[in-house]
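I am hoping you can look over what I have pasted underneath with an eye to the fold:
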Amino acid sequence: MANHKGSEGYVKVGSNTIAEVRDWSFTVTSDTVEDTTMGDSARTYKPTLTSASGSITCYWDETDTTGQGAMTAGSEVTLNLYPEGDTSGDTYYTGSVIMTEESATAAYDGMVEATFAWNANGTWSSTTV
């Protein structure tokens, strides 16, 4: 069974690697519709539409114009999440997303961080490099 360290990962906007990524996450959900009929002894459902959303946290880097700078709220980008690296045979997640939020935080005794949130715009899929 394979497992991986988080430090092996990458995040890219298109083919551009995003600088200073600290963490990322995504969730895929599926809506359901009930199809229970008379005589059934338990409720039953059918899957309908899926959706995906997620977030990325980075150390803020104002010089990363093609990575962090491309993820402005309202922009549509192709996002690629690589949990195990980006060499041949590695699995990654990809799709067109709309950036829904960008924020920054700073503390006198810490690093300036930027957080970006997104919703998939269509299919979110898993593939290999």
Observations:
- Strands lie at 10-13, 16-17, 21-34, 45-59, 76-82, 91-105, 113-120, 125-128.
- The longest strand covers residues 45-59.
